[in-house]
C-alpha cells in the first residue's frame, strides 16, 4: 500500500468529521483568500475600465485639487491655474508639503488676484445670470514623502506616513480632477486618487504636466506617473516624440 | 542705447563663480565698450557670496573707475521682474524662473546670456538654456568661462527670436473636469 492512498483516506475521514477545527481553519482561510482575490480583481478591472470612460460631466462646477510641488514647480502650476475660469471650479484645494509654506502663500495670493478680476468682469457684464456660489478654497499641508538628501531607507517610512495622509486627504476632498506637475510627493496623491477610482467612490481624473525644465528626459515622477494618469503633458517636442506611443501630449510651452 | 546690465545668481544655490567672471578686466572692458553704464549684481542670500562680491568690487576698483560703470549689489529682491524689465542685458544663472521672466518680460525685452553653474552641471538644469539657444532666444555661455562670456557679448547685436507664445491648458483641464459645455468638449475630443 502506498503512502498517498493512506493520506487520501485520512483526509476523507477528516472531511467526514467536518467540524474538525483544522478543517474549519483551512476552509475559512480559503474562503477569505478567494474573496480577497475576487475583490482585488474587481478593483483592478474597475480601475482599468475607468481609463476607457470619458470624464464625468459636472455642469454645475467641479472640485479641483492642485498639487503644488515647490519653488519652480509651484510657479509653473500656478501660472496654468491662473488661466482657468474659477467659476467652473467652485471647490478648489491646494495641496502643499510640509516645510513649503511659500507655495500656500502664493496660492492664496493667486486666489486674491483672481477674485479681484472676476468681480470686476461681473460688474461690467451685469447679466441675469446668478453670481457663482462663493468658492470653497482649502489649503492642505501634508507631510513630505522625502526631503532632499534623505536616505532611501528612512524615506520608506516617511513615504508611508505621507501616503496615509494623502489617502485621507483625497478621500475627504474627493476631487473631480487632480492637476499636478511633480516633484515626488504628488505620486502619492495620484495613487490615493486611484483608490477612489478603483472603489468607484469618485472617478477622479488625473492630469500631469512635466516641468519645462525637462527637455530630453522625463523626471522620475513622470516616469512613474506616465502609465497612471489620464493626461500626460510635456513641454518639449523631443519628449513628445520619444514617448508618443505612451500617449504623451505636447501643445507647446505652457510657462 | 545699452545702459543697465543685471547679473543674477538666483536664490536657491550660491553661484559665486558668476560674480567672479563678471568682475574680470576683459568682461568689464567689453561691457563698457558696449556702452554699459550701470551694473546691477544680485549675488544671493549667503554671507560668503556677499564677501565674494565685495572683494570683487574692491579688486576691480581701478577698472570700474576708469570705465565709469556704476556698480550696485544686493542679495535678493522680491521684485526681480522690475529689475529685469529695466535692464538692457541680463547675465543669468541657468534657472528656469529667471530665463522665463526675462524672455516673457514686455518689450523692449532685455537680451539674455545664460551661464550655467559648473557645480550643477550634471543635473538637467541647463537643458532649458541649451534648448532655447537652439531656438535663438538667448545666448548660452556653456563652458562658464571668461572666453564664453566675451564671445556671447560679441553676438549681442543679432536679432533674437521671440519665445513662442505661452499655451493654455485650460481647455484640457476643463474637459477632464467635465465642466466644459458640450460643443467645446467635442472639439477637444476630435483633437
UniProtKB/TrEMBL annotation, chain A:
GO terms for cellular component: nuclear membrane; UDP-N-acetylglucosamine transferase complex. The chain crosses the membrane at residues 22-48, 152-171, 177-196. It is found in: Endoplasmic reticulum membrane; Nucleus membrane. GO terms for molecular function: N-acetylglucosaminyldiphosphodolichol N-acetylglucosaminyltransferase activity. InterPro entries: Oligosacch_biosynth_Alg14. Heterodimer with ALG13 to form a functional enzyme. This is UDP-N-acetylglucosamine transferase subunit ALG14. It comes from Lipomyces tetrasporus. The gene is ALG14.
Automatic annotation (TrEMBL), chain B:
It is an enzyme of class 2 (transferase). Its main location: endoplasmic reticulum. Residues 5-166 form the Glycosyl transferase family 28 C-terminal domain. Its EC number is 2.4.1.141. It comes from the Eukaryota. It is found in: Endoplasmic reticulum. Keywords: Endoplasmic reticulum, Glycosyltransferase, Transferase. InterPro entries: Glyco_trans_28_C (IPR007235), UDP-GlcNAc_transferase (IPR052474). It catalyses: an N-acetyl-alpha-D-glucosaminyl-diphospho-di-trans,poly-cis-dolichol + UDP-N-acetyl-alpha-D-glucosamine = an N,N'-diacetylchitobiosyl-diphospho-di-trans,poly-cis-dolichol + UDP + H(+). It holds the Pfam family Glyco_tran_28_C. One of its GO terms (biological process) is dolichol-linked oligosaccharide biosynthetic process. One of its GO terms (molecular function) is N-acetylglucosaminyldiphosphodolichol N-acetylglucosaminyltransferase activity. GO terms for cellular component: UDP-N-acetylglucosamine transferase complex. Belongs to the glycosyltransferase 28 family. PANTHER family: UDP-N-ACETYLGLUCOSAMINE TRANSFERASE SUBUNIT ALG13. Involved in protein N-glycosylation. Essential for the second step of the dolichol-linked oligosaccharide pathway. Heterodimer with ALG14 to form a functional enzyme. This is UDP-N-acetylglucosamine transferase subunit ALG13. The gene is ALG13.
Amino acid at each position: 500500500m502506498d503512502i498517498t492512498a493512506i493520506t487520501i483516506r485520512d483526509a476523507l475521514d477528516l472531511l467526514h468529521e467536518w467540524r474538525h477545527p483544522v478543517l474549519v481553519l483551512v476552509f475559512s482561510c480559503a474562503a477569505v483568500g478567494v474573496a480577497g482575490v475576487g475583490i482585488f480583481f474587481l478593483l483592478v478591472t474597475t480601475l482599468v475600465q475607468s481609463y476607457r470612460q470619458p470624464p464625468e460631466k459636472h455642469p454645475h462646477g467641479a472640485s479641483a485639487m492642485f498639487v503644488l510641488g515647490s519653488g519652480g514647480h509651484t510657479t509653473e502650476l500656478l501660472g496654468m491655474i491662473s488661466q482657468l475660469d474659477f467659476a467652473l471650479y467652485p471647490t478648489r484645494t491646494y495641496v502643499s508639503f510640509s516645510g513649503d509654506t511659500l507655495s500656500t502663500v502664493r496660492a492664496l495670493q493667486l486666489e486674491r488676484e483672481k477674485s479681484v478680476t472676476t468681480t470686476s468682469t461681473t460688474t461690467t457684464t451685469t447679466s441675469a445670470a446668478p453670481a457663482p456660489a462663493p468658492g470653497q478654497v482649502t489649503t492642505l499641508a501634508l507631510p513630505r514623502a522625502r526631503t532632499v538628501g534623505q536616505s532611501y531607507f528612512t524615506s520608506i517610512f516617511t513615504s508611508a506616513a505621507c501616503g496615509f495622509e494623502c489617502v485621507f486627504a483625497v478621500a475627504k476632498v474627493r476631487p473631480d480632477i487632480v492637476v499636478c506637475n511633480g516633484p515626488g510627493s504628488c505620486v502619492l496623491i495620484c495613487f490615493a486618487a486611484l483608490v477612489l477610482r478603483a472603489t468607484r467612490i469618485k472617478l477622479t481624473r488625473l492630469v500631469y504636466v512635466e516641468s519645462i525644465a525637462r527637455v530630453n528626459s522625463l523626471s522620475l515622477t513622470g516616469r512613474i506617473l506616465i502609465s497612471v494618469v489620464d493626461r500626460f503633458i510635456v513641454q518639449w517636442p523631443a519628449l513628445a516624440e520619444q514617448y508618443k506611443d505612451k500617449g504623451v501630449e505636447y501643445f507647446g510651452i505652457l510657462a | 542705447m545699452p545702459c543697465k546690465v543685471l547679473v543674477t545668481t538666483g536664490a536657491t544655490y550660491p553661484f559665486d563663480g558668476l560674480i567672479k567672471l563678471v568682475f574680470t578686466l576683459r568682461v568689464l572692458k567689453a561691457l563698457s565698450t558696449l556702452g554699459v553704464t550701470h551694473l546691477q549684481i544680485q549675488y544671493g542670500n549667503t554671507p560668503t557670496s556677499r564677501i565674494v562680491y565685495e572683494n570683487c568690487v574692491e579688486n576691480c576698483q581701478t577698472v570700474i573707475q576708469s570705465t565709469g560703470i556704476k556698480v550696485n549689489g544686493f542679495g535678493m529682491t522680491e521684485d526681480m521682474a522690475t529689475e529685469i524689465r529695466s535692464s538692457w542685458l541680463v547675465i543669468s544663472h541657468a534657472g528656469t524662473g529667471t530665463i522665463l521672466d526675462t524672455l516673457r518680460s514686455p518689450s523692449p525685452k532685455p537680451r539674455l546670456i545664460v551661464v550655467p553653474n559648473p557645480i550643477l552641471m550634471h543635473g538637467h538644469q541647463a537643458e532649458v538654456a541649451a534648448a532655447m539657444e537652439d531656438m535663438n532666444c538667448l545666448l548660452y555661455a556653456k563652458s562658464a568661462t571668461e572666453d564664453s562670456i566675451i564671445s556671447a557679448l560679441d553676438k549681442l547685436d543679432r536679432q533674437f527670436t521671440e519665445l513662442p507664445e505661452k499655451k493654455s491648458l485650460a481647455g484640457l483641464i476643463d474637459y477632464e473636469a467635465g465642466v466644459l459645455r458640450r460643443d467645446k468638449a467635442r472639439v477637444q475630443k476630435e483633437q
